[in-house]
Fold this sequence. Notes:
Blueprint: E1 2-4, E2 14-19, E3 31-46, H1 54-65, E4 69-78, H2 84-102, E5 109-116, H3 123-136, H4 141-150, E6 159-167, E7 170-179, E8 192-197, H5 203-214, E9 232-237, H6 251-273, E10 281-289, H7 292-304, H8 306-313, H9 319-327, E11 339-344, E12 347-353, E13 356-357, H10 362-369, E14 373-379, E15 385-392, H11 396-403
Parallel strand pairs: 4-5, 8-9, 10-14
Antiparallel strand pairs: 1-6, 2-3, 3-4, 3-9, 6-7, 7-8, 10-15, 11-12, 11-14, 12-13
Amino acid sequence: MDMIKGGVTAAKGFEAASTAAGIKYTDRTDMALVYSQVPCEAAGTFTKNVVKAAPVKWDQKIVKSGCKVQAVIVNSGIANACTGAEGYGYCEDTAKAAAEALGISEDGVAIGSTGVIGRQIPIDKLTAGIKVLAEMKDHSLSNGTEAAKAIMTTDTAEKEMAVEIEVGGKKVTVGGMAKGSGMIHPDMCTMLSFITTDAAITKEALQKALSEDVDDTYNMISVDGDTSTNDTVLLLANGLAENPQIQYGSDDYKIFAEALHTVNEYLAKKIAGDGEGATALFEVKAVGCESTEQAKLLAKAVVCSNLTKTAIAGHDANWGRILCAMGYSGAQFDPEKVDLYFESKAGKIQIIENGTALDYSEAEATKILSEPEVTATADVKMGSCAATAWGCDLTHGYIEINADYRS
């Protein structure tokens, strides 16, 4: 597997575009198009929040129906959530406008929205933006990057990734873009992510590859504990690599699934590290566990602990908060057997052994915790299973961003 430049336009046959439609923002692009030259098999995973935005309902219907998808229209600024029949009708209007502008089927248009909940989409601005997107689309890597920028809300940077693999003697590419900074909590999926591939693959294999991977990637991140109304991951495969069609469970499937995991994990970590107001990516590894379920419960509890997150913000090795979070995680373990380590580019230090503090250097611990990427590893000494979760520190910046988000 090779990492390559690009994102959603890295794979053969995919194009993208962005534009400033003025949906909410007046100083930046706020609409993006992802387009395939041929219809794609489509897979998706969506929020488990009972309150689902209109675009989520629209995309769920398309993925379930088995329709081939050829375009995705995404807007930022307004989420089109809690907007009733009128909001869902705007999804229909969006699909119709995209179908006319691109010369494709309305059933082949997926939709993504992100932003303020409860406001209606200014549909005239949206449909005008679609016409611009259709005229500007191309396969350049720069257009893919600009599309990734256009779907941002409070994100501080675009998030994109692409890799190449070989399947049946053919070069296959998997690329993607994502957005997410706030209202992020693991429950499939707490953000928007759009993955494209030129692989020839069955719809069954495509959906299983995505569904099986989200539990170890997007579902293992948290910024603030809030599961969004708009969480969506769409995976599109157009088959233009002309590889032998990938079937579920085959060796080729395993190769493809590994590539997809690499892209998803990268994007998930970028979202976690770009949490609103964050200064550090906080990675938590639970090791020596008797089951993967136990490991995930432990890692998630620590990464979601606000007290631990504020300690990371203060570069404070307050290990008691970590052990406390592990204790209320719901996983059973012996706290008197736990070893805990902190690690970053500045070094590695063991903080506790068998549940009690070692005579470590607070100055050294602070130095390690002052890096932009910090890892805490908890070993419960019960088995060979492990899991990793990702989050960020919690700073005053989070409050400042969210206190006036609507305005």
